[in-house]
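Consider a typical record:
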Amino acid sequence: MRLSLAAAFGCAAVLAAYTTPALAGPAPDARLAGVSACEDEGVLSFIRRRFAYGAARVEKRDLAIVGVEKIREIRAEVDRPSMIPRRWCAASVTLSDGSRTHLSFVVAGGLGFAGPGLAWVPDEVEFCVAGHDPWRVHDGGCRTTRRWW
């Protein structure tokens, strides 16, 4: 069976379209674009608010985060191990009693009611302040909020 020249070029064009990286899916950076940055004030104020709430009710202390310094992104990715875009972050914090400790947190995009990717669903923020997890919710050394694998 012989293919016409036009059919051969058509097959080559279709093959090229399916094998080009541009059509293989969005770049990881594009899929992470909707996830709040580690330095985002909304994320940090959520952490401050929830820490003060937890310290008052769990530790029975009037303790708050008064300073967040050296904020850095440890890693950001999608597809490893899940389709949910995540940013792993770390920072140094100063507490209202004057002590300094380590904060680790994960910002995950669109984990709301119906699944990932809803534009109106806020980012999910999970955090751990070292030394302030008496029930070991985050596995003692804040392991569940650190990028460890």
Remarks:
- The two ends are 53 Å apart (CA to CA).
- Strands lie at 65-77, 86-95, 100-108, 124-129.
- Confidence is low (pLDDT under 50) at residues 5-28.
- The first strand starts at residue 65 and ends at 77.
